[in-house]
Design brief:
CATH architecture of the largest domain in chain A: Alpha-Beta Horseshoe
Radius of gyration of chain A: 21 Å
GO biological process, one term (chain A): porphyrin-containing compound biosynthetic process
Strand order of the largest sheet of chain A: 9-10-8-7-6-5-4-1-11
Largest sheet of chain A: 9 strands, mixed
Radius of gyration of chain B: 27 Å
CATH architecture of the largest domain in chain B: 3-Layer(aba) Sandwich
Organism (chain A): Piscibacillus halophilus
Strand content of chain A: 15-25%
Shape of chain B: globular
Strand order of the largest sheet of chain B: 11-10-16-7-8-15-12-13
Subcellular location (chain A): Cytoplasm
Largest interface: A-B, 42 and 26 residues
CATH superfamily of the largest domain in chain A: tm_1862 like domain
Keywords (chain A): 4Fe-4S, Chaperone, Cytoplasm, Heme, Iron, Iron-sulfur, Metal-binding, S-adenosyl-L-methionine
CATH superfamily of the largest domain in chain B: P-loop containing nucleotide triphosphate hydrolases
Number of helices of chain A: 17
Strand content of chain B: 25-35%
Number of domains of chain A: 2
Largest sheet of chain B: 8 strands, antiparallel
CATH class of the largest domain in chain B: Alpha Beta
Number of strands of chain B: 33
Shape of chain A: globular
Helix content of chain B: 10-25%
Number of strands of chain A: 17
Family (chain A): Belongs to the anaerobic coproporphyrinogen-III oxidase family. HemW subfamily.
Structural class of chain A: alpha/beta
Oligomer: heterodimer
CATH class of the largest domain in chain A: Alpha Beta
Helix content of chain A: 40-55%
Chain lengths: ~375, ~600
Amino acid sequence: MDRSVYIHIPFCHEICHYCDFAKIYYNRELADAYLENLRKEMGLYIGNQTISPRTVYLGGGTPTSLNENQLEFLLKTINEFINVEQVEEFTIEANPGEFEEGHVKIMKDFGINRVSLGVQVLDDEFLKLLNRNHTVGDVQKTVEMLQHYDLNNISMDFIYALPDQSIDHFKKTLDMALAFDLPHYSAYALQIEPRTVFHMRHQQGKLNKPPEEDEAEMLLMLMEMMEGAGKRHYEISNYAVKGFESQHNLTYWNNEEYYAFGAGAHGYLNQERYVNLRPVNHYNEALEKDQKPILHRDVITLKEKLEEEMFLGLRRASGVTDHEFIHKYGVSLFQLYEKEIQDLQHKGWLEREDDRVYLTKNGLMFGNDVFASFLLDEDTYKKSLNN
Amino acid sequence: MAEQQNVRNFSIIAHIDHGKSTLADRILEKTKALTEREMKEQFLDAMDLERERGITIKLNAVQLKYEANDGEDYLFHLIDTPGHVDFTYEVSRSLAACEGALLVVDAAQGIEAQTLANVYLALDNDLEIIPVINKIDLPSADVDRVKQEIEDVIGIDADDAILASAKDGVGIDEILERIVTDIPAPTGDPKEPTKALIFDSLYDPYRGVIAYICVKEGSIKVGDEIKMMQTGKTFEVSELGVFTPKPISKDELRVGDVGFLTASIKNVGDSRVGDTITLANNPADEPLPGYKRLNPMVYCGLFPVDADNYNDLREALERLELNDSSLQYEPETSQALGFGFRCGFLGLLHMEIIQERIEREFNIDLITTAPSVIYEVELTDGETINIENPSLMPESKNIKEVREPFVKATVMVPNDFVGPVMEICQKKRGQYIDMQYLDENRVNIVYEIPLSEIVYDFFDQLKSQTKGYASFDYELSGYKPSNLVKMDILLNGETVDALSFIVHRDFAYHRGKHIAEKLKKIIPRQQFEVPVQAAIGNKVVARTTIKAMRKNVLSKCYGGDISRKRKLLEKQKEGKKRMKMVGKVEIPQEAFMSVLEMDEDS
């Protein structure tokens, strides 16, 4: 089985006020040129053969901002390099209300079997506040249309702790979301990122973020309601009916390598994490010179791998098992992190069961503190290597 | 070498911004001390910090050659002086090496309070003063008014004041001529036993102490065995020289010469600024009068953020003390901050400069506690003790009386701001003393104010209330009893010694409340609820709570951007390292200065 593939489509018809991903206003000519270059980039990595990854993920930006011809071109390109029949999970991110049946047919024809909908919140006023260009009605229509074409593996993305959002308001969104009874949901707390409209408003003191207490309550409520509806909390921000966990996202948490294509995309190949050039024109320029469009690469050292194995792995409900850790790195995590694990267990943040460690519910609330404690000091690391 | 009667030693007295550095540059240029190529703007302000802030902190001495209109060659020694009140000590040092001074006054702004203090110092030293009215090119220049002011305020004849524009090079020739004609040559007898005043020094790792000296009697040659009259230590002179401003070696320095000396002096304490150097085989009977050693007025604790840097901090302080003998320090241990030093400074600017130099030149991250003054405490058993660290204030039942230092504060301000200035002074527990009109526009307001209030936020308030027009100076006027109490700050039920401060009882409640609120904002949420209390003795006067952290987890999916997640975690870990763990509570650096800051509304 080959490494998973992430493909970034940086175009959007509207820029959301919170978004700091690589994105740019959609423009037909620019998108045409971009898709040509994307094909070129895949060729530089894959060559004349085809690869058989377990998962492919089309993210953005908004992949559904492309018109039908462009979407078809993109999927044909993917089929050229990837043996799509062998792919278990082929996801596309989609904006409700932005595409019609033509798009759905093309998705089906070229092997897409999972759709992740950027819903964010189910309240038209709030959607406007986020500068989303869809309505609650669009969400309903889009879900029905996908299900009509038998695309039933649907996920919805939500953001909570929005400006002026109450706990009760979020509950209403969750009630409505769960009424769709989809196999998969994701929910992220709003993060104010630099170079966004929200950041600017925040700086000016014009953004009324809910207090930390409310944000914590929202997360607790979210977990409870999801579990209550039979959606297992399998990763910090992901919930799914058993068997519908996002296999693609799990490659990240499993600390596996993956290809990344497209402007601003992040990949992990041959022990190196790399990030591609952004914005689109820089990306295009490199490929027009037949160069890999890489902005920056980092060789991941053994020390970093050990750390990442922990702080990524612990995001999963299943946690990290020692036999896998030993199998990968030849050292026991209980030996390497003896003191940290004891300390975290003492705090009630980490549970140990046989050779497996995983976050407690309380530990999940303070995930960053848990994760940060698995960053090794140079000295500790050197000492443990000598043993 | 020029004869003694052809030597002139002088300095320049000016307020910040009145153009002293530019004038010094023009003089250097005119006397060809620097070639065009070497001519950097504002040569004398050599420290980065000085250039950035546009102020002179350290003195400099430069030797210049000048051919006067009478056809003779003269040797000038220009000794630079700092302009700020905190550096009065250094001014007195450089003035002691001079026979005259140029008083530079801005043609538009007139005399400022700080200039006044230095002029009086010069007059006390019997220096010949040549008034220079600078910046006459400004459209707002008012030469007649400034002349009148010089006569009224300082009481010297301003009829023949030199009109100059250092920027345009106007008046420089006249200044040079007047230095020759007005300033007397140094007195002193070349045949008398040698006496040379050390007016500054710095440390060079290869040559040891470099002493800046002014030869008042006799002479010194390379190879001479010299004796420090204060310590009695003897050394062999290895190098003599002058600054032109480049250092130029000389075989001999004679009466009137101002230059430098090295003698393999390894121990900083062996060459004290203010000491007199004489020759070991023909010593002088009496040393030159030293300087009035100024005592620090403001104290604060300096602690390294990283405890491992304690020794580096001590070394840094030793180095700085060498040419800044007004800096005092002694080891201090704080329960909260560990090992550090309690340091005494001449004033707030002095404190700030030292902190900045330690951080920049020695690369040590510091935690600074809020500055405090020295309190005199009379105990019930009759003993009187000095308290420079608020946390050491005895229990109130053992105190008979607490006295605090007062200063005579002089504020010069345009008419329109008299009201606001008086209001600030009253609010700062000031006692009105006097008010004089300097002319129809400007007023000199004099108050007696507790120094602790000046240390607090007086200057900031003055600046903001007068749109920056006020100039301000102060001198210690003595100790008076005040109704003062020690306020402790408790975090999570434990007193944090480094946060204790002393406050007037009438303001205690208000300030305690304010600081508790401030700390609540600055200290990040912890895993548990942290009560913040301000207390006088056992009585809690203000209380607030830092709520427990409820959630700290990054849920956002960064589309596979693991490096970013890593960076965030590393930043969190690093941030924790920079905090001080006090008891169970992690406190960021800035909390320790919060005691000092008041918001607008307070």
